[in-house]
Write a structure and sequence with these properties.
Blueprint (H helix, E strand, L loop, with lengths): L13 H20 L13 H32 L6 H17 L5 H14 L2 H29 L9 H23 L15 H15 L1 H29 L6 H15 L11 H10 L6 H19 L3 H16 L5
Length: about 325
């Protein structure tokens, strides 16, 4: 009988999608009532300069996807799985396409697990690699936020900076709890030999334990995560200057963008955190004198750059979906 490579999925009722849609629509509706088109772009903004920052932002966003795939490869190496970077880029782009172009929040990760499982021959390793890869991001993002405040301590005096600090601190606390539980032989480790769905908890334990025992692999994965997140921040920095927010301190971008990135991955909205991202930017940047219209524009441009790069995966997503459907329709061989 053929080996199944279908990753474990969790089905939600239709009300969950409608609830996420309501959150997105509600947030965008509130934000747009405060939108003043006259505040959007300064009148003296240079068109060549604007286009240069826009193009640079798109290129950096594309580069971040390559770095994310490298991070994924570093995590897979912990399990002894050698998957070429081009293959991982293709899977990562397909996952981003699902997460940003389709009404989904975690569907992109499910797709990545499903497709990687066919390359590695193990759905457990595919699942664990995506989970651990995600966890490295919740180390890198708080580090960048705290670095921003370290560079400009006076940012802590702004009215809402505590939100970014709380988000970063909360992420590190949750990450610490997850790592302690996952690394414990008596907690997560007890499930590694199970035959049911609990074996997925066990394989995450195996990965965390190997990273703990070999710091070189751990630092390689964390270094790749930092490089990826810094490139995303650089891309948003270009979005900030595309809009014309030249007076916004660079340290503020470094401190606040990672905090926004952490909040936007919460499964409470659709289309890659649409609405949540813009609301967070407006909330954090307003005390720095950024008009709501420009804060919203930065968020939408951040989303647009991600979407433009993600759309490059549309053909691969469609063809891969057909291949998966064909495999499903083919009778299993004994």
């Amino acid at each position: 009988m053929a080996v199944s490579t279908t990753a474990p999925t969790r089905r939600h009722g239709p009300w969950v999608k409608w609830a996420r849609l309501a959150v997105t629509v509600g947030l965008m509706a509130v934000l747009l009532t405060k939108f003043d088109a006259d505040e959007l772009v300064p009148k003296d903004r240079s068109l060549p300069g604007t286009l240069a920052f826009l193009c640079a932002g798109i290129v950096l966003m594309a580069g971040s996807f390559v770095l994310a795939s490298w991070r994924w490869q570093r995590v897979l190496a912990v399990f002894g799985a050698a998957v070429p970077i081009p293959t991982l880029i293709k899977h990562y782009l397909a996952g981003q396409f699902v997460g940003n172009a389709l009404p989904s929040t975690v569907g992109g990760d499910v797709l990545r697990v499903s497709r990687l499982a066919r390359d590695t021959g193990s759905r457990e390793i595919a699942f664990a690699s995506v989970v651990i890869e995600r966890l490295t991001g919740f180390f890198a993002l708080p580090v960048l936020t705290f670095l921003g405040f370290l560079i400009r301590p006076d940012l802590l005096d702004t009215g809402r900076s505590w939100i970014a600090v709380a988000v970063a601190g909360g992420a590190l606390l949750i990450l610490g709890i997850i790592v302690v539980v996952a690394a414990s032989p008596r907690l997560a480790g007890r499930f590694k030999d199970r035959e049911n769905w609990m074996r997925y908890i066990g394989i995450v334990h195996v990965g965390i334990d190997r990273l703990r025992r070999d710091p070189r692999d751990a630092w390689a994965a964390l270094g790749a995560a930092l490089a990826y997140q810094m490139t995303v921040v650089a891309s948003v920095y270009c979005a900030v200057h595309t809009i014309g927010l030249d007076k916004l301190p660079n340290a503020a971008v470094l401190a606040f963008v990672p905090a926004v990135a952490m909040v936007q991955v919460l499964p409470i909205s659709i289309f890659g955190g649409l609405g949540v991202r813009e609301a967070m930017l407006a909330l954090l940047l307003h005390p720095l004198g950024v008009p709501t219209a420009q804060a919203i524009a930065v968020g939408l441009l951040w989303y647009a750059m991600t979407l433009i790069v993600s759309l490059a995966a549309a053909p691969a997503f469609v063809m891969g979906h057909r291949d998966e459907q064909a495999a499903t329709d083919t009778p299993e061989s004994s």
